């Protein structure tokens, strides 16, 4: 009897024993919350990025009186602007004079609805846009815009090409990361979320590079073609959307990687505890 009493575990000792989670335990609420926030940030950044690519307000020019600029001295501005032979200097001068806006794919100017020689000056203006062709995106930029004999400006040439390619690389990386995230949900595992986070981080770098290339390209262009005194230039809301998209991508990447690594670390400690 004494031996049996010695082997009996006191009831109070059960309260001090650690509780071991079962193998099918649910994911910690911290990780689930982090993944939900990361997915929302990723979705918002994708929408912002797509909107910035598809709109024409990356850079805006504001003149005091665009209706007066399109007068008898400038009836052919629109014809020159839409011409296939229009070089960089030609359409940039039109952007200066006619409240122009520039996007990644199109350029727009504001002109009177009726600009015929017999029409009186009008205050009713309309915005007309012309798309950059694929060849325009890869055309060489010259040291002196409009002068084909001045030589190739390599800095502006490659900055222009990068600002065309980087946004598509950024969106492609985020879409691929979303596909990996769906596979992770199907497999009920957080390990692939690390790859999703890395892809979002690379997408953020591409977006940040796009913003830097665009700013550098605009600054170099204005050194070659200074703004007239009555013209004011500023970055538009499409550019701002791209600027906001980059930090959202970085935050989503940080949350994906943190959730995956922390969950994996805790799972490894739990396995070690069970073996012990």
Number of strands: 5
Classify the helix fraction into a percent range.
Answer: 55-70%
Task: Count the domains.
Answer: 1
> Which class in CATH terms?
Mainly Alpha
Q: Could you describe the largest sheet, including whether it forms a barrel?
A: 5 strands, antiparallel
Low-confidence stretches: 1-9, 12-26, 269-276
Provide the spatial order of strands within the biggest beta sheet.
4-3-2-1-5
Average of pLDDT: 79
Helix count, DSSP H or I runs of 4 or more residues: 10
Instruction: From the alpha carbons, calculate the radius of gyration and give it in angstroms.
Output: 30 Å
Helix and strand pattern: HHHEHHHEEEHHHEH
Query: What general form does the structure show?
Result: elongated
End-to-end separation: 32 Å
Q: What do we call the CATH topology?
A: Butyryl-CoA Dehydrogenase, subunit A, domain 3
% residues in beta strands: 5-15%
Under the CATH scheme, the architecture is Up-down Bundle
Structural category: alpha+beta
Entry keywords:
5 strands; 276 residues; disordered N terminus; alpha+beta; membrane; disordered C terminus; PMP22/EMP/MP20/Claudin; CLDN1; Butyryl-CoA Dehydrogenase, subunit A, domain 3; transmembrane
């Amino acid at each position: 009897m004494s031996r049996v009493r010695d082997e009996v575990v006191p009831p109070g000792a059960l309260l001090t024993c650690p509780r071991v989670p079962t193998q099918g335990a649910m994911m910690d609420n911290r990780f689930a919350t982090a993944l939900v926030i990361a997915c929302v940030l990723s979705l918002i950044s994708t929408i912002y990025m797509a909107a910035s690519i598809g709109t024409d307000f990356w850079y805006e020019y504001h003149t005091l009186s665009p209706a007066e600029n399109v007068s008898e001295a400038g009836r052919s501005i629109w014809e020159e602007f839409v011409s296939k032979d229009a070089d960089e200097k030609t359409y940039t001068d039109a952007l200066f004079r006619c409240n122009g806006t520039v996007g990644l794919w199109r350029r727009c100017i504001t002109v009177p609805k009726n600009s015929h020689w017999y029409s009186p000056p009008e205050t009713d203006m309309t915005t007309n846009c012309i798309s950059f062709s694929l060849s325009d995106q890869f055309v060489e930029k010259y040291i002196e815009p409009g002068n084909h004999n001045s030589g190739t400006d390599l800095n502006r040439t490659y900055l222009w090409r990068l600002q065309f390619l980087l946004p598509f690389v950024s969106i492609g990386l985020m879409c691929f990361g979303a596909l990996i995230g769906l596979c992770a949900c199907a497999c009920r595992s957080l390990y692939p979320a690390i790859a999703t986070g890395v892809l979002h981080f690379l997408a953020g770098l591409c977006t940040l590079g796009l913003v830097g290339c665009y700013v550098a390209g605009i600054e170099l262009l204005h050194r070659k073609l200074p703004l007239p005194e009555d013209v004011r230039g500023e970055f538009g809301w499409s550019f701002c959307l791209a600027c906001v998209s980059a930090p959202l991508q970085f935050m989503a990447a940080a949350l994906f990687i943190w959730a995956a690594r922390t969950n994996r670390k805790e799972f490894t400690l739990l396995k070690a505890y069970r073996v012990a």
